[in-house]
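$ run holo --ligand "magnesium ion" --emit tokens
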Amino acid sequence: MERSTIVRVHEGLHARPATRFVKLAKAFESDVELVKDGKAVSAKSSVKLMLLAVKENQEVTVRANGADAIEAIEALIGYLENPRAGLDDEGDAGEGGPQAAAPAPEATPVAAAPTDGTPKLQGVAASEGVAIGPAFAHFPPEIEGPGRRLQADEIEGELQRFRGAVASVQARMDRTLAENNLSAGDRGIVAALRDIAADDSLTGEVERLIRGGDDAVSAVIGAAATIAADFSAVDDHYLNARADDVHAVGRQICLVLLGQDEVSLETIPQGAILIADDIGAWDLARAPLKRIGGVICGHGGATSHIAIIARSHGIPAVLGLGDKVNELRTAKEVAIDGNAGHVIVDPDEAARADFTRRVEAAAQERAGLKVFKGVTPKRADGTVIEVAANIGSLEEIEAAQEAGAMGVGLFRTELLFMRHMHLPSEDMQAETYSALAKAFAPHSVIVRTLDIGGDKPIAGIEFPDEENPFLGWRGIRMCLDRPDIFKKQLRALLRAAIHGNIKVMLPMVSEIAEVTRTRALVDECASELKAEGVPHASFDLGVMIETPAAVLIAPALAKEVAFFSIGTNDLTQYIMAADRLNPTVAKLNDVTNPAVMSAIELTAKAGVAAGIMVGMCGEAAGRPDLIPAFVGMGLTELSMSPASIQRAKKTIAAMVAER
Ligand code: PEP
Ligand code: MG
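-- output --
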């Protein structure tokens, strides 16, 4: 008996939704399989399901055979058709689940360290911040299987030994989960590892090898290597990162079988930089994280579990160094720059002095700024200056709230599109925007429509080769040419607008027609939603001012929109004709150049004269040396990365106090 359907589960059967699906399948006696593109796998193995790489909107068939086949098919089809399936049950599917595979945080520009004489190793910038400290090299010995062939009468005993080891690893993980000092994110990660340890594909493959005569340790190493290789081969970054998890679980089982303890991280000294070829997420989650100054790893990338743990604990991390990590085995001291992805081994005096200064300055400043978290900064005339956050994913909400953000001034939606191998659905987008709106209510959340171009291609959109991508088919230009993509986003925004605090802004606007054409599309989407009976509401529409053309037509533009938000990153490069990515023209790419400052002033004047809100969401909005000038020009909203918020509030408060 079988039935087909289109998968609506948000982002498909990634780790947590897959394990929940398996749990449901296991509740039925029948044999159940899931079939995609002619390939059938057992629905009772989460590893096999994950490897089937079932994506949202793909067609699959549920096949069941047994006494309760009808009930099984009904329940499993219902699960597959539920967009939120597996996302909000059991409390342990926290940030560590697949949805938390946040990209590396936006690298905030930091002053380049004067370390030119000292060799730097380059890895993946996986968690921002700088640190310098004693090296703590953690290279636990490789476990090798004895490669012993079992006698026929030893096999049953070896199977029992293996099952006992799995049970003990699971029990240890359960104990860790029961501790209440784990964060929601770490809890989700440990729960995902526990699922792998319990999965039939791992245990089944190990038992098959033992029955074939392999000793248990060799069988675990072999089975874990096969499954990890399968994860590495899937065309999906999130699933690739699960290969490390499989190895970590295999290692834990082997250690129990060998009666050994993992080399402990308990002795890591205060402020030390942890260096490892490959550290298990479970080991890191249990480590004394408060003492760890930084993490450096040969394996891993921005979406691996260790990156997520490091980011959520504010620990700078550089991952993916590959074999270069071996150069750190004998290091005494290490400096790490998690913004740039640099590692300096045994820094010289100059580098040490520079890092020490940067670390101390950052710590002192952080401590002194905390009191500004809850401050509502006002101009001398009592007008509130909204100090909001620039974010690009839901995982950053907590950091923004912790910093005291008064809403979101720029939600960069590109990451939603870049994180996936397919375009995000309208439902998924509506849920994301709604979650943001709810998190920051009653403050505004300004969502920027897709700002992507030939320099940052994404799956699902064909970009032409362009000589000058920054002057090409990007932002609003691309969106208006692709109403199939743009309308989905506008419909999702109209749906999320029912929460009352969503505003929408258009990037790269250079003529009024771009606004009027967008408005026509918004009206079309609203009529469609009305006809379909889908709840929705209108939103304020604004524009980013980031092209010279927009500055020059600002008085006319101001009559068409509800607000301006000045994008100084692009505005500077276009006013100065100096590529923002090209270090050789970095000197010209300077927001304080009088040409750029007068473009900002012209914009502010036009907006203030028309009585609309003028804000800023480029990097310059967080600069204490420029904030007084911007506030003086009439800007009433400044949006920046969460790390700059308290400093900006302090700067505005000081302006009033000084008068
Ligand atoms: C800007 O250009 O100032 C801006 C905020 O947008 P982005 O950096 O995403 O181009
Ligand atoms: Mg821009």
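-- notes --
The pocket of phosphoenolpyruvate (ligand 1) is lined by residues 410, 412, 451, 546, 567-570, 617-618 (CB under 6 Å).
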